[in-house]
């Protein structure tokens, strides 16, 4: 038995599963799945897809030692917060790279590997007024995304040169396509964050909006569990495990109590093998 029926495909064959409680963590794909849920609040939400590109350059391990800090610049006047340029060191499969960006783009796709038609199929007639409202109220953002979408390599290198003179010629940079995020349109208004949705009967939960990074994901999933399956934490064993993973889950305490914050930070750094610099 199960209140929810999940239809999927496995090795080219259709499969069906039933569940009493369903959590949808499908990135941009969570929007069309929400539309199919027939939940009352599904019509309050629509998706606004935004893509991103970066310039990437391979560097040696020795060179990587000079670029350990993530360096931010300032967004251009009138540009949205997501456009703040930064230089970042990344390690992929043991190889070091420098990334510079982001260069935003408007791509009507819910996920990188899905097409334009998938996005169109996710739109319902009741979503159109909200999409038009966003286009009008956030016209500078739409204009920015369109201009960024058609930005060529020459303009990207010019931005890098303005950010760090000489760096564009020091390494072999190539543009790469980064991830795809689907921002939330809620009640006709564009939102930039992440939202947890849970049905009143606590049988359906989902995560919409910008995907949280590694530093935020654990806290977001804890809130998902607290809202969707609160009975879990009625058991002593579960509470002990929660305390082990989250020594302090009250953010206000960490903000108001510096000593408690340092205690948890130092314990986390020790587990991660991060050496905290000492004051000189």
From TrEMBL:
Its cofactor is FAD. The keyword Flavoprotein applies. Keywords: FAD, Flavoprotein, Oxidoreductase, Tricarboxylic acid cycle. GO terms for biological process: tricarboxylic acid cycle. InterPro entries: MQO. One of its GO terms (molecular function) is L-malate dehydrogenase (quinone) activity. The keyword Zinc-finger does not apply. Pathway: Carbohydrate metabolism; tricarboxylic acid cycle. This is Malate dehydrogenase (quinone).
């Amino acid at each position: 038995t199960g209140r929810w029926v999940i239809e999927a495909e496995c090795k080219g064959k259709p499969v069906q599963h039933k569940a009493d409680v369903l959590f949808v963590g499908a990135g941009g794909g969570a929007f069309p799945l929400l539309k199919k849920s027939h939940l009352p609040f599904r019509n309050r939400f629509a998706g606004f897809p935004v893509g991103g590109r970066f310039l990437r350059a391979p560097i040696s391990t020795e060179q990587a030692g000079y670029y350990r800090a993530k360096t931010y610049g300032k967004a251009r006047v009138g540009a949205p917060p997501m456009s703040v340029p930064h230089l970042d060191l990344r390690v992929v499969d043991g190889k070091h790279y420098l990334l510079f960006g982001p260069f935003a783009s408007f791509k009507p796709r819910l996920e990188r590997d899905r097409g334009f038609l998938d996005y169109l199929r996710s739109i319902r007639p009741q979503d159109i007024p909200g999409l038009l409202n966003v286009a009008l109220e956030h016209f500078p953002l739409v204009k920015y995304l369109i201009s960024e979408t058609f930005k060529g390599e020459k303009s990207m290198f010019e931005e890098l040169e303005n950010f760090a003179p000489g760096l564009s010629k020091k390494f072999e940079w190539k543009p790469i396509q980064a991830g795809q995020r689907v921002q939330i349109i809620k009640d006709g208004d564009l939102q930039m964050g992440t939202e947890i949705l849970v049905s009143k009967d606590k049988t359906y939960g989902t995560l919409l909006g910008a995907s949280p990074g590694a530093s935020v994901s654990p806290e977001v999933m804890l809130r998902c569990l607290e809202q969707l399956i609160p009975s879990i934490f009625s058991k002593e064993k579960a509470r002990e495990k929660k305390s082990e993973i989250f020594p302090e889950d009250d953010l206000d305490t960490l903000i108001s109590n510096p000593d408690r914050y340092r205690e948890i930070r130092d314990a986390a750094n020790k587990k991660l093998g991060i050496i905290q610099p000492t004051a000189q």
